[in-house]
Amino acid sequence: MDRSKQHRAVVGWGAAASLLILAMVAGDILLAAADWRVYLVVQDALAGKATEAEFTAAADFWDSVRGPRWLLLLVPVYAVFAVWMWRARLNAEALGGPGSQRRARAWALAGWITPVANLWVPYQVVSDVWKASAPGRSAPRARLAVWWGALLVGTYVGNGYVNLVKNELDTVDDLRRLVTLSTTSAVLDVVAGVIILHVIHRVSTWQTQRRAEARR
């Protein structure tokens, strides 16, 4: 069998990637909630309304969700999604032909880690996989632009959050900026997460169905 035409199973990898992405988004929401809890307790403390126990509980919760366990989650998220992306990219080429993909296969992985190119190449790869996988008429791709925009801006905001946390949070204004960044990052991550979950599900379903139809 021509290996370029061989179908790669994607449903299982897509399900695993989806669960990990959900966990990562949930972590972002928890982090934003923890930031808000600390900020509000500090506000109450300045007004003489918060107890020491409330402040300690808020600080403990903040430390727990900022722990390294959430950073460790990034590794399997990216690894499993990369496997799904690679297999989906190969299937898309088999379904639509080499001309359906603007980028060579290697860019399905390298596009995410290559400086400058990572600003648009992953979007092109996902967009081409989506288009080649869709049965019949071309599926609308506007949602992919929203996903990519939310992901890029969310990454930028997230980096700002990390840089702020590295410094001493000495004032209420520092905490206010912190909650603004974490809330914005969480909202953008939810938007990007919901869309990419939809993309993973649809592409996996389309490719599996078209493979089954071709074997009849």
UniProtKB/TrEMBL annotation:
Entry superkingdom: Bacteria
Segment forming the signal sequence: none
Name of the featured protein: DUF4328 domain-containing protein
InterPro entries (alphabetical): DUF4328 (IPR025565)
DUF4328 domain boundaries: 57-204
Membrane-spanning residues: 12-34, 70-86, 106-125, 145-166, 178-200
Pfam families xrefs: DUF4328
Record keyword Nucleus present: no
